[in-house]
Write a structure and sequence with these properties.
Layout lengths: L14 H20 L3 E2 L5 E3 H9 L3 H4 L3 E3 L5 E4 L4 H10 L9 E10 L11 E10 L4 H17 L5 E7 L3 H15 L8 H9 L10 H6 L12 H16 L5 E2 L11 E9 L7 E7 L3 H4 L7 E7 H7 L11 E5 L4 H13 L4 E3 L6 H10 L4 E5 L7 E6 L4 E6 L3 H7 L15
Parallel strand pairs: 1-5, 7-8, 12-13, 12-14
Antiparallel strand pairs: 2-4, 3-4, 5-6, 6-11, 7-9, 9-10, 10-11, 14-15, 15-16
Length: 426
């Protein structure tokens, strides 16, 4: 019988790799808490229209959606990104009824049918934030600062922050018209994707990764010369806010992002050495999306990052999980060891115990390999109401009364607290 395998573009994540994902998620949660964001968990699938009305059906992401009909023939899509789902929830639950800026963050799997490659699978994991309800350009700078704070805490260095403004609806319409005038001259020589973009969303031709297209489209107008006064002023304020925060940036007037809902500020954080997929975090404003999905006119700004690319970018090793205690025992005292393990866990002390018969010597080797802080050894001393406790870091051991062991270990849960008196040097 043929062995069953995970579908192409998906992966089983376990062991050290799972710890790495959890580490990033824990760091992200702590950073988002600092900035006043609350977690939101949206469904993994939504009505297809939630995404087609936001990211755009003809964008790369729109074409890569996993869409299926349920038993009532309603079209549903696995989420290819999460901003649209968050905004749908924001509208459905009338979160706009509060005058405050709503700050939300999410973590979880996304799905896109694309060619699997380093840093991008068909099921991939993403984290992100959405700040909904403020026009302030200072908020744009704060979101970028938060993204950089996250990268710093993860030990990610050597990246470039690129920013741009793609303007309001009026600016975008002017930009589109100007691009169309120039594209007519070179359309037949562009790649098939760009020829299609010329019909659906001409501005996204600037986002093409094909080097030949990039060379031919150098003549196309960028956004900087076509912004209205209000958009220019907002972008200048945002840049001033970035400089207040001492954030290094590069203005890239050809940066447009690959989703239809963006407006005004857009940014990408890129790191060399990751191949074609070199953007590790990105985002921007989407001041019209709430309205386009059926809500009131409410501005918003956010960012997202794929965990796989963050992992590829990390320059540090994370500490492995180490148990507080390993319980070793002579075979005659299995029940006593088993009961002690249960009691320790009820008192929030992590412990390992091998319930299969093994020599005490092998158990102590296992305790050392697992880097346990202490090893509890249950041997013949138990007949006298005592348990041996070994400090694995200092290679010292002592006997503790059985009835005192739990209290004693709880008091010394901090590994820095020595198990034995330290003599002061004269």
């Amino acid at each position: 019988m043929e062995r069953i395998k995970a579908p192409k573009g998906t992966a089983d994540i376990f062991g050290k790799e799972a710890n790495l994902y959890r580490y990033i998620e824990d760091v992200a949660r702590s950073i988002f808490d600092i900035y006043g964001y609350c977690e939101i968990r949206t469904p993994i699938f939504e009505e297809k229209s939630v995404f087609t009305r936001s990211v755009g059906e003809e964008t790369e992401i729109g074409k890569q959606m996993y869409t299926f009909a349920d038993k009532k023939q309603r079209l549903l899509s696995l989420r290819p990104e999460n901003t649209a789902g968050v905004i749908r929830s924001y509208i459905e639950h009338s979160l706009y009824s509060s005058s405050k800026c709503t700050k939300l963050y999410y973590l979880g799997p996304m799905f896109r049918y694309e060619r699997p490659q380093a840093g991008r699978m068909r099921q991939f994991y993403q984290l992100g934030t959405e700040a909904i309800g403020s026009h302030s350009p200072l908020l744009d700078a704060e979101v970028i600062a938060m993204a950089l704070h996250l990268l710093s805490e993860l030990g990610i260095n050597g990246y470039q922050l690129k920013i741009n403004s793609i303007g309001c609806r009026k600016c975008q319409q002017t930009h589109t018209e100007q691009i169309l005038l120039e594209v007519k001259k070179i359309k037949e020589r562009l790649c098939s994707d760009c020829q299609e973009r010329a019909e659906k969303n001409p501005r996204r031709i600037l986002d093409c990764k094909n080097k030949a297209c990039q060379e031919m489209t150098k003549c196309l107008p960028d956004t900087s010369s076509l912004l209205c006064k209000d958009c220019k002023d907002l972008f200048s304020e945002m840049i001033h806010s970035m400089e207040l925060l001492e954030i290094d940036y590069i203005i890239d007037p050809r940066l447009v992002r690959g989703l239809d809902y963006y407006s005004k500020t857009v940014f990408e954080i890129q790191k060399e050495g990751l191949g074609a997929q070199n953007t590790i975090a990105a985002g921007g404003r989407y001041d019209y999306l709430v309205e386009e999905l059926g809500g009131p006119s409410v501005p918003a700004v956010g960012f997202s990052a794929g965990l796989e690319r963050l992992i590829l970018s990390m320059d540090r090793n994370i500490p492995e999980q180490e148990p507080d205690i390993y319980i070793a025992y002579l075979s005659d005292y299995l029940e006593e060891a088993f009961l002690l393990a249960n009691t320790l866990r009820k008192n929030c002390l992590s412990c390992l115990i091998d319930l299969e018969p093994k020599s005490l010597k092998n158990q102590l080797k296992e305790a050392s390999s697992k880097a346990a802080t202490w090893t509890v050894i249950i041997g013949d001393e138990i007949k006298n109401g005592k348990i041996v406790l070994k400090d694995m870091k200092r290679e010292k051991q002592l006997e503790i009364k059985e009835e005192k062991i739990i209290e004693w270990l709880i008091k010394r849960k901090n590994p820095a607290d020595p198990l034995y008196p330290v003599k002061k040097r004269r």
